[in-house]
Amino acid sequence: LLLGTMGILVFQGLGGGGDTAVSINSSPAALGIRLFEVYTLPFELTGVLLLAAMIGVAIFSFKKKKKEE
What we know:
This protein is mostly helical.
């Protein structure tokens, strides 16, 4: 499913080049500004998801150690 979606996106991107080029500011400062201004909610949700994953791994590892004893 993932490969099919990627294939569709690649083939759509290859067609119709367009006449204008888009200027992209790729500096680290511009990326930080976009993360904290435009993509604030997804950035925060990703942080919460990663925190939950770390807590889950810690809980599972402690349970496994107790069963081994």
